[in-house]
Write a structure and sequence with these properties.
Blueprint (H helix, E strand, L loop, with lengths): L1 H25 L6 H31 L4 H4 L3 H16 L1 H9 L1 H5 L8 H29 L7
Helix pairs in contact: 1-2, 1-7, 2-5, 4-7
């Protein structure tokens, strides 16, 4: 069972990273009807991957691996979890933007996205990607036992 949870955790993490990369690429140019539809679908997958990652990750912490006491006494885990929450909070802004396009997309029209809003979305996706890289650094340190608080 622990191996299954590890697999699901990694699968969700890779899915989350892939969806961010896709959003990054789709936001390089102006938003069309097609790219808006893709962004909405990819953002839904991103949210589901984040939810699976959190639930499975907490399952691993509390029921498998080394146990909650170990992890919550490791600064690298606390940093990793904090960064995950921060990235999740930041991701609310693009999600709300993509959802605000729903009416236009349903009517077969490209959403009206200003250059300023597009740049803001790009910047937020960049921040999310930086956060994910930092999460990966914390995970690598954690896997090597670095960060245990005495």
């Amino acid at each position: 069972m622990a191996a299954t949870f590890a697999f699901l955790h990694h699968l969700a993490a890779f899915t989350l990273v892939a969806t961010l990369a896709i959003q990054f690429v789709l936001l390089r140019d102006e938003v069309t009807l097609g790219s808006a539809r893709k962004l909405q679908a990819v953002d839904t997958i991103y949210g589901l991957a984040a939810l699976v990652l959190l639930v499975v990750g907490l399952g691993r912490v509390f029921h498998f691996e080394k146990g909650a006491t170990y992890y919550f006494h490791t600064w690298t885990f606390i940093a990793k979890l904090s960064l995950f929450v921060l990235v999740g909070l930041i991701s609310i802004v693009p999600t709300l933007a993509f959802r605000s396009w729903r009416r236009a997309v349903q009517q077969g029209q490209a959403p009206d996205v200003s250059a300023q809003q597009l740049q803001r979305l790009r910047s937020i996706i960049h921040l999310e990607l930086i956060g994910v890289v930092l999460i990966i650094v914390c995970a690598a340190l954690m896997a090597k036992g670095i960060g245990l608080l005495l």
